[in-house]
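Example 3.2
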Amino acid sequence: MLATCDTRSRTAVEYEETERILTDREKLGLRNTTLFDAEMARVDFSHADLRGSKFDRVELSGCRFRGANLIGVWFVECTMIDVDLTGASLGLNSFFGTNLQGVVGLSCKQRDYVVASGATFLAGRAKGARGKQAK
């Protein structure tokens, strides 16, 4: 049985802004992308089409996936700290060995799905990409 979920208590670190390294057009061409052994801090993947992509041993810190299509995306042995998944589409995912801390935007049902797909939500307050304590 999965634990009771309270989405109101989760808040991510607020940044002045995320890094805009991808144009809106580029975000739509990210299907079936593989990222391996990388560190991504404050990258804005909002509304990106990442269907079928694989993140393998990637550290995602302060990134935004608002409204992103994450259907079929595999997060394998990743670390997700202060990531915003508000409105992201999930399904057919693997979160094998992935640790999440300070992640926001998931409903209780989505959170249960992520855990059932192999993720672990870490307790405590996350430190953001700049080393400041989350409020």
